[in-house]
Amino acid sequence: MPAPRVPAPSRDLLDAIDRLRPTLMAIARRYLGCPFLAEDVVQDAALRVLSGDAAEEIGTPDAYLGRMVRNLAIDRARRRGFENRLFADEEQGLSCPAACAACPDKVMEGCEALKVVEQAIAALPEAARTAFTLHRIEGVPQKEIAQRLGLSPARICGLVRQAHDACGAALAAAL
User: Residue 7 gets which letter from DSSP?
Assistant: First the structure.
């Protein structure tokens, strides 16, 4: 069986990348705030063009590349924000003189807090529990949860907030 044919990148797109590099860098830097990350995004866009992931027939390569870089930069910024929130506690823990794994009392406090939060989530109404779990734990967007549950996005936002407040109150009461 012959290998699938990968389309060659459009010469117009390759020329546009070279010609628009400063503009593409500025677009990416606007969303990322870092010239090094912006360079990575522009290189990712160029690799997509070179690998044939870009469409073959594009009427306006300048606009196409600008949109591609913008979308890649937004995706990278969202991923960085998520990772920063996800790993914030770990980074704060590293500044502690003793590693958290070496502090049994810290481990115990974390386990107890987790149990309190699990109990608070379990005590929530089904809709709030489902919305909170899908959004905060699995990372599903609220609009998608609203579609899944047949509720309005505003209602999903309220349910997530209700669950978040319940967890906070349970933790405050436990301390």
Answer: P
Per-residue pLDDT reduced to its tens digit, 46-60: 888 777 755 556 778
Measured at the CA of 54, the angle between CA 52 and CA 60, to 5 degrees, comes to 135
Closest among 104, 164, 109 to 133, alpha carbons compared = 164
- 101 vs 132: CA distance, rounded Å: 29
Report the chain's C-alpha Rg in angstroms: 23
Cα–Cα distance, 114 to 16 (Å, whole number): 52
Cβ atoms 9, 50 nearer than 8 A: yes
- DSSP code for 137: I
* Contacts of 116 by beta carbon, 8 Å cutoff, 6+ apart: 170, 171, 174
- Let me know: does 52 contact 8? Beta carbons within 8 Å: yes
Task: Tell which residue, 61, 56, 46, 57, has the closest CA to residue 5.
Answer: 56
pLDDT per residue as tens digits for the range 88-133? 654 455 554 444 444 666 667 777 888 888 898 999 999 999 998 8
